[in-house]
Amino acid sequence: MSDLISADLIDLDLTGADRHEATGKLAGLLAAAGRVTDAEGFLADVRAREEQMPTGIEGGIGIPHARSAHVTVPSLAFGRAPGGIDFGSEDGPADLVFLIAAPEGGGSEHMTILAKLARKLIHQDFKTALREAPDAEAVAALIQQSLS
C-alpha cells in the first residue's frame, strides 16, 4: 500500500471554513495527481458518506472517505490543519485529516486502509510524529510505514 500517498498529496497548512472546503482542497491534490478524474463528483460522494455519519474521531482526527467512480486508483491525501476543522467528533476539531479515495469497484480496499489507519492512530507517538514532521516527504514516509 506504499503507493497510496506521496508528498504531492499532502498539505501541511490545510485550512477551510468547514470540513467540505478542507476536503475539497485535499480532493484537488488527488485530481492534480491524476488519481481522481472529477473532483466535484468525488466530493459529492464524500459528502454523501459524511451525511451518513461524521468522520471525525477522538484525538483531533478527521477521516473523510468514499468509494467513487471518479477515483482511478486507491489513494490517500493528508492535511495538517493547525487551526482545526470540525469533522463532527465530540472532542473537538481535527488537526490531522486523512482523505481516503477508493475506486467504486474497489471492494473493501478503503476499509482496509481505514482499519490500518485507525489502529495506528490510537498511538499518541504516531499522531505526535505527524504533527511535528518537518515536511511533506517525512509525513508521506510516516504514513507509508504505518500502512505497510
UniProtKB/TrEMBL annotation:
Keyword Transferase: yes
Domain of life: Bacteria
Protein's UniProt keywords contain Phosphoprotein: yes
Alphabetical UniProt keywords: Phosphoprotein, Phosphotransferase system, Sugar transport, Transferase, Transport
Pfam families for the chain: PTS_EIIA_2
Domain spans labelled PTS EIIA type-2: 3-146
InterPro entries, per database record: PTrfase/Anion_transptr, PTS_EIIA_type-2_dom, PTS_IIA_fruc, PTS_SugarTrans_NitroReg
Protein name: PTS sugar transporter subunit IIA
